[in-house]
Amino acid sequence: MSLLMFLMMLCAGAAEQGMSGDLGCAGGPSLVGFVASANGDDLRTGLLFGSLFALILLVCVFVAGRMRRVGHGSAVVTRDGESAARR
Fold first, then answer.
1. Which residues are CB-neighbours of 43 under 8 A, at least 6 positions away?
2. Whether the predicted pLDDT of 56 surpasses 80
3. What DSSP designation does 1 have?
4. How far apart are CA 37 and CA 51, in angstroms?
5. If residue 17 lies in a helix (H) or strand (E), which one and from where to where?
6. What is the pTM for the complete model shown?
7. What does the pLDDT read at residue 87?
8. 3-state class of 83 per DSSP?
9. What angle separates helix 43-70 from helix 3-38, to the nearest 10 degrees?
10. How far apart are the first and last CA of the chain?
11. For residue 64, what are the CA distances in angstroms to 3, 23, 67, 68?
């Protein structure tokens, strides 16, 4: 693979990550505003909805970490065929 092709792939990956961040920064407040306006312009309801999303995300991170410690998510195998998570 040439150096130019590698640099092009690197820039494309950075552009995708940047675009995802921009969409998240615009979409989150928009969704909070939509929920707030649907509930009689009550901003507290919109912010509660946004907080629930963050809470669900934290629960998913803890569950994924626990599954990885137990060995369900580990694909790393040592030379003797034993999973590295079980050691």
1. 32, 36
2. yes
3. -
4. 17
5. helix 3-38
6. 0.52
7. 47
8. strand
9. 130
10. 38
11. 37, 25, 5, 6
